[in-house]
Amino acid sequence: MQKDAVIFDMDGVLIDSEPYWRQAQVDVLAGYGMTATFDDCIRLTMGRRLDDIAKIWCQHFNLNIPSEELQLSIMQAVVALIRQHGEPKRGVVSLLQTLQGAGVRIALATSSSMPIIDAVLNSLSISQYFSVVCSADNEEHGKPHPSVYLTAAQKLDVAANQCVVIEDSVTGMIAGLAAGMTTFAVPDNIDDPRFAVASGRFSSLEELEQHLIKTGEVKGVMVR
């Protein structure tokens, strides 16, 4: 069955922002006298919604501050890093152009908050490709709960089983699969056994684009 829509995750898919997220968390926590490593960030918070990230660190370090304070500080640090260093990942623009040219409906469904979404879309100059933008901040539950993907499908007016999800994290992959969507993983570590349950694994967006062109899995995207 050919799919009608493609829903992108943002961090780690459109932009290699995970290093910015890790750096922001490490720097902000250091300001509170706490030492976190990049590995800690990957293990504890990767793919999580910002309010969840702040709560996780407050509990992990037993910080006696409102989690909202930590949340705001991390968000501001991430936005600053994206504005200064943000670039699209290899293959992003080509894939978006291919999908748009084929008339495919395209959405963004991310754990990030709107200020970070705006910073990414503006820094990368790709906002024109997305007819729907959804933040898990507006959902009761963040990923791995599927709600942000289901909301995106609803706004696209496309059935969940007619959507393709592109993810890079285990948390996001679980969300896409739980939504009943074909979920492709483009992770940093393609050999991670946890991605075996994905609908497909690819080393890059370029490889994924070639797969879509060859298979015609998404309506309108095919060899011409």
TrEMBL record:
Top-level taxon in the UniProt lineage: Bacteria
InterPro entries per the UniProt record, alphabetical: HAD-like_sf (IPR036412), HAD-SF_hydro_IA (IPR006439), HAD_2 (IPR041492), HAD_sf (IPR023214), PGP-like_dom2 (IPR023198)
Spans through the membrane: none
Pfam entry (one): HAD_2
This protein's name: Hexitol phosphatase HxpB
